[in-house]
């Protein structure tokens, strides 16, 4: 497929990833923005679905900073939105927040007293304290202690890595995976798990007053493990953008190599294109 226009008329609802598709953390991808605007002009309801561990208002401000116009989407759903609901279920319990200060808006206004790792009843992981220099291995001792104490870890961003201006940096999902590997219990707030998709569909159904048929939903993203697995698991049509976190393997490769690469993956997209364009 060379452009989304080839299949857009098959869908009433488009669930589109943000980081890796709409922007790369440094600049917006203008072709993707134009494609989403064009899809909306043709009646497709566009929900940006992101594993960003922040409330949707923070993502709106980020997109504005990249000069992404508001007519590129109808709504935004974040793993942060889902995560806040999970935190509210544990109101009043002391929590250790593992992640950078930029994610503090996630707990703003919630009854979630922040404490040190030794005093916590559970862990909220939004990322690494310093994703420029650290990896999940940097937290091995801390995670082993959490597992020994049988603490639940809420992962606010299931992504393993993200492309930041051409560099791959680790995300909260890498911490969560390492925690599971030492026997820890993890609750995931975002893609590929269903609650974030259900929240997005509910917005469309509320706005339009009609039920969303799974056969008329597409999910666009750049990550096999989250975007494609999530769309497939939800019963939506999956569309993969190759110029994201898997770009080194796929973007400049032949279609024969791409076919072989996809054959080795646990999840495969229904469609693929180098960049999201109309």
UniProtKB/TrEMBL annotation:
InterPro entries: HAD-like_sf, HAD-SF_hydro_IIA, HAD-SF_hydro_IIA_hyp3, HAD_sf. One of its GO terms (molecular function) is phosphatase activity. It comes from the Bacteria. One of its GO terms (cellular component) is cytoplasm. NCBIfam families: HAD-SF-IIA, HAD-SF-IIA-hyp4. This is HAD family hydrolase. The lineage of its organism: Bacteria, Pseudomonadati, Pseudomonadota, Alphaproteobacteria, Hyphomicrobiales.
């Amino acid at each position: 497929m060379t452009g989304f226009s080839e299949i857009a008329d098959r869908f009433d609802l488009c669930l589109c990833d943000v980081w890796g598709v709409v922007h790369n953390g440094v600049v917006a991808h203008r072709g993707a923005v134009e494609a989403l605007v064009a899809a909306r002009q043709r009646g497709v309801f566009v929900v940006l679905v992101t594993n960003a561990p922040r409330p949707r208002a923070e993502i709106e401000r980020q997109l504005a900073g990249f000069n992404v116009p508001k007519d590129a989407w109808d709504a935004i759903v974040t793993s942060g939105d889902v995560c806040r609901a999970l935190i509210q279920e544990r109101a009043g319990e002391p929590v250790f927040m593992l992640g950078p200060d930029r994610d503090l808006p996630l707990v703003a206004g919630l009854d979630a007293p922040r404490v040190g790792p030794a005093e916590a009843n559970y862990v909220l992981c939004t990322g690494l304290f310093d994703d420029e220099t650290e990896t999940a291995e940097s937290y091995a001792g801390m995670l082993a202690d959490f597992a020994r104490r049988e603490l639940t870890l809420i992962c606010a961003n299931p992504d393993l890595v993200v492309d930041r201006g051409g560099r791959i940096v680790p995300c909260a999902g890498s911490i969560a995976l390492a925690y599971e590997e030492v026997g820890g219990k993890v609750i995931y707030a975002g893609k590929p798990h269903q609650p974030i998709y259900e929240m997005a569909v509910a917005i469309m159904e509320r706005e339009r007053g009609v039920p969303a048929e799974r056969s008329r939903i597409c999910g666009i993203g750049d990550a096999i493990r989250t975007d494609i697995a999530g769309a497939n698991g939800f019963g939506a049509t999956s569309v993969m953008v190759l110029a994201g976190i898997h770009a080194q393997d796929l973007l400049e490769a032949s279609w024969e190599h791409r076919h072989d690469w996809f054959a080795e993956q646990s999840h495969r997209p229904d469609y693929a294109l180098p960049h999201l364009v109309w």
